[in-house]
Design a protein that fits this description.
Radius of gyration: 25 Å
Distance between the termini: 50 Å
Pfam families: SseB
InterPro entries: SseB_N
Number of strands: 6
Number of helices: 4
Number of domains: 2
Structural class: alpha+beta
Protein name: SseB family protein
Domain SseB protein N-terminal: 43-144
Strand order of the largest sheet: 2-3-5-6
Length: 161
C-alpha cells in the first residue's frame, strides 16, 4: 500500500488510463483518406517552413529603397500596400533592371525585418505587408495577417488556417 492508501501503484494506473484515452481518441477520430492525410501533412510542413522563414526575416537587416519622394518604396496590389525590401544589393539591382530603372541612383536604407513588420507596416495607410526580393525568382511575401504583423493591423481571414 502506498501513502495514498491505494493498493496499486499510481504510475501503473496513469499509464494504462492514458493508453485507454489514446485508443478511444483514435476510435472516434474521423477517418481520413490517404490524400487528406497527405494534404494535412503538406500544410503543416508549409506552415513550419513559413514560420522558419519569418523568424529568419525578422532577425535579418534588409535593404529598403526610397522612391523619388524620399519615402519607402511601396507597391499597391489588391488593396494591400507592400513595402519592397531586398536581401542584398544584387537583388535590388535585379529589381531596378526589371523595372527599366537600372540607370538611376537608388537610395536605400538598411532596416531590420522585425522593425519593418512591427513599426513600418502599422504606419502604412491601410493593410500592408513586406515583399522581399520582389521581381526575383526567390521572392517572398510577408502578408498583413496575425502572426506576421501586429494584431491591430492584421487582416482577419475568417479564422481559417
Amino acid at each position: 500500500m502506498d501513502e495514498t492508501g491505494d493498493d496499486q501503484a499510481l504510475t501503473t494506473q496513469q499509464f494504462s488510463r492514458l493508453a485507454e484515452l489514446a485508443e478511444a481518441a483514435e476510435a472516434y477520430a474521423p477517418a481520413r483518406t490517404a490524400s487528406e492525410a497527405a494534404t494535412v501533412d503538406e500544410a503543416a510542413v508549409a506552415r513550419r517552413e513559413f514560420a522558419r522563414l519569418l523568424g529568419e526575416f525578422r532577425r535579418t537587416a534588409v535593404l529598403v529603397p526610397f522612391d523619388e519622394h524620399g519615402s519607402l518604396w511601396t507597391a499597391d496590389f489588391n488593396g494591400v500596400r507592400w513595402i519592397c525590401a531586398f536581401s542584398d544589393e544584387e537583388a535590388l539591382a535585379r529589381f531596378a533592371v526589371a523595372r527599366g530603372d537600372a540607370e538611376r541612383e537608388w537610395t536605400y536604407r538598411t532596416i531590420l525585418g522585425a522593425r519593418l513588420l512591427d513599426v513600418m507596416v502599422p504606419a502604412l495607410p491601410g493593410p500592408g505587408g513586406v515583399a522581399l526580393d520582389a521581381g526575383g525568382t526567390d521572392g517572398m511575401l510577408f502578408p498583413p495577417v496575425a502572426g506576421v504583423v501586429p494584431a491591430p493591423v492584421a487582416i482577419d481571414l475568417g479564422g481559417g488556417r
